[in-house]
Every structure is written in structure tokens, then in C-alpha cells.
Amino acid sequence: MSEPDLELTVLMPCLNEAETLAVCVRKARACLDRLGLRAEVVVADNGSTDGSQALARGEGARVIDVPVRGYGSALYHGARAARGRFIIMGDADDSYDFSRLDPFVEALQAGADLVMGNRFLGGIRPGAMPWKNRYIGNPLLSAIGRLFFRSPARDFHCGMRGFTRAAFERLNLQTTGMEFASEMVIKATLLGLRIVEVPTTLDKDGRNRPPHLRPWRDGWRHLRFMLLYCPRWLFLYPGVALMASGAIGSLVLLAGAPSALRQGLLLASSAAILLGFQAVAFAFCARIYAFNEGLLPEDAPLEALFGRFTLETGLLVGAGLLVSGVGAAVAAAWLPWSSSLLPGRDALQVAIPAVTAICLGGQVVLTSFLFSFLGLRRR
């Protein structure tokens, strides 16, 4: 990015917005003149075929051609080309009021790194948002974002937001589609940037064609992205819960459950332990990979834990489980006294935990090698 020579850039992604683009640019330029800012309007065009580019230039906007399709791609390259110290982005369908940028500008000038519009505070006009988005999708995804990442944003997917050039460079955004909106808020939260919300209104867009947004498809893409960006909730917490429930269940069953139920429930508990360990291992692998690739910032507790991990420790633990499991299995199956002490189905009470220990030991050994491999680049 070039050094900023303006105070503000108003950025609009565009794909065939000829019906509404000109009025959006006019509103933005009128607001910038009223505020007395040295500013520009940039339209990041994503391959329009309806003459949107000429309309934007005719209204005094600078057009950036972005050949790679995608909402995130248009915004990313538009922000890269921006000349302002601050950048305010908004959709070019006339659903956001570019004549009222004052709260965003004031928050940025006051030191905010990311200023999020909140449509639920500012008001949603009749017909501006489908009911499933207003009452299900947006509240649910925003709640998940606040739970997973402790983000202060209460309208996670508002299309109007402002940010500083310095914050944009730190975010190192990667996604090219609708997930771009989630990635920006999540990374800003994880990096500890200052996030501020301001009320903004949402009007019914001025187009005669259907919007590019597909509620169910794009909602799933946002949810999937949040899960992938939070290995704790996707892998770690479910894995720990499975391992704990499996271990407690096994102990309770061995202590006194009816014999007729014991074997089947023991198998279920063993499966929970093995599946839980796999999920926990995936959590650490995903987190280490994300850190190595710069997708997520440092995690101090994980770094401390990984710093204490050694391949040799993992191999010793895995070998201990393997030896214990093999020993118990051999004892239950072959020793002369086993048939008298553990007749019939009671022998399964030893065989099932023994096989579980063997499988778990093998997983520990293999996972230890994988952790060590993933840690080569970091060390």
C-alpha cells in the first residue's frame, strides 16, 4: 500500500450496480464536502457488464478493476489501492446511507481501529432485511462470534464499517468471498484492536434484480468460517467433554453396572475416549498450523504448553499405554487362571479397556510425531 495522502477513502464494492451506484457516489461526495475532508470515493469493480464503471467515473469516483471475483476480493484490492488514512466501506446498492458517515469518521478520528455499524441500533426499514436474516441469521451468528471470540460487535455482518489503513495491514485478510466480513471482525478481536460500534440504518436496496446475497448458503459459509477459526470450540472443548464422559462412564460401569449392560456401555465409553482424544489432537494441530501460516495471532497458553512438549515425552506416554493394553489383553486371553477368574462375558471387562489403551497409545505416539513435525518450522 502507498503512503496515505488523503484523510479518508470511501470504498464501494461493485458488481453490476448501475441502478444505484451513481446515487451512492453522489451521497458520499456530498457528505465528504460537508465534512470538509480531503477524501476520495473508490469503486472496486468486480467485472460489471452493465456500465457501472463509466457511471462511477462520471460521478467523480476512482474505479479499481478487480478481476478476481468475490465480495472479499473486491474490498481487499480496493482497500489496497485506497489513498486515505481511514477507509469506510459500504455496499453500492443504496441500502446504506453514505450521506451520514459522520459517526464513523468521528470514531476513527477518536482512535478506533475498526468501527462497526449496528443496524439493530440504527434501525432496519421495512423490507430491508429478510425475516430469517433479521431474527435468526444475524442474531445467531453475532452471538456465536461473541461467544467464540469474545468480540464486542453485536452486528457481526453489517456491510458498512470503517477502519484505519494501519489496522487493515495488520489484519492480513485472506478470504475472497462473503467470509471477508467475519474474518475482519474476528482478526481485529484476536489482535486486540480497538473496536467501536455506531448506529447505522439499513434501507431497502434500490435494485430491481435479486441481491447477490444468498441467505442460507452465505450464512453457512460464515458459520463454517467461525468454526474453522476457533479450534477450541470446533475440536478442543467437544474432545475434552467426550474424553471426560468416556473415562467417567468406564469407571462407573466397571464399579457396579449390571453385567448385561456393561459390555455395550463400555464399548460406547471407549469410543468416546478415542474420538475425544482425536478431536483434542486436531485442535492443537489446527492451532499450530494457523499460527505457522499467519492465519491466527499468537495464543500465549498454547505457546507455553507447546513449549513444554517434547517428542520423547509423548513417546513414553504412548508406549506406556501400549504396553499396559497389550499386557492386560494377553492376561485376559491366555493366562491359565484367566478363565476361572474372568468367565464368559466378564473377560470383556478387561479386553475392552485393554484394546482402548492399545488404540489410545498408538494415537499418542503418532500424534506426538505430528506435533513435532508441525513444530519444526516454529523452532
Description:
It contains 15 helices and seven strands. With 379 residues, the chain is α/β, with parallel strands linked by helices. The protein folds into two domains: 223 residues, Spore Coat Polysaccharide Biosynthesis Protein SpsA, Chain A; 148 residues. A seven-stranded mixed beta sheet has the order 3-2-1-4-6-5-7. The longest helix has 34 residues. The radius of gyration is 28 Å and the shape is elongated. The model has no long low-confidence stretch (mean pLDDT 86).
Distance between the amino and carboxyl termini: 31 Å
CATH class of the largest domain: Alpha Beta
What proportion of the residues form beta strands (DSSP E)? 5-15%
Q: According to CATH, what is the topology of the largest domain?
A: Spore Coat Polysaccharide Biosynthesis Protein SpsA, Chain A
Oligomeric state, counting identical vs distinct chains: single chain
Query: What order do the SSEs take from the amino end to the carboxyl end, as H and E?
Result: EHEHEHEHEHHEHHEHHHHHHH
In spatial order, strands of the major sheet run 3-2-1-4-6-5-7
Quantity of strands, as a count: 7
CATH superfamily of the largest domain: Spore Coat Polysaccharide Biosynthesis Protein SpsA, Chain A
Structural class: alpha/beta
What best-fitting shape do the alpha-carbon axes yield?
elongated
Number of helical segments with 4 or more residues = 15
Name the helicity range: 55-70%
CATH architecture of the largest domain: Alpha-Beta Complex
Largest sheet: 7 strands, mixed
> For the CA atoms, what is the radius of gyration?
28 Å
Query: How many domain modules?
Result: 2
Average pLDDT: 86
